Amino acid sequence: MGRFAASWGFIASVALLLAGCGGGAQSGVERVCSANTFIPNYVPQLRRLLYWERFPVTVYFERDENYSDYYRALALQGFDQWVNATGSVVRYVVVGTPDAAQIKVYFDPSTKDGLTTYSYYPSSGRLVSARVEIGTKGNNAVDIRSVAAHEFGHAIGIDGHSANPDDMMYPTYTPNVPLQITQSDLNTLKTAYCDYFIGRSRRAPHPAEEAPVEVTIVCPASP
Ligand SMILES: [Zn+2]
Question: How far away, in angstroms, is 26 Cα from ligand 1 center?
Answer without folding.
Answer: 36
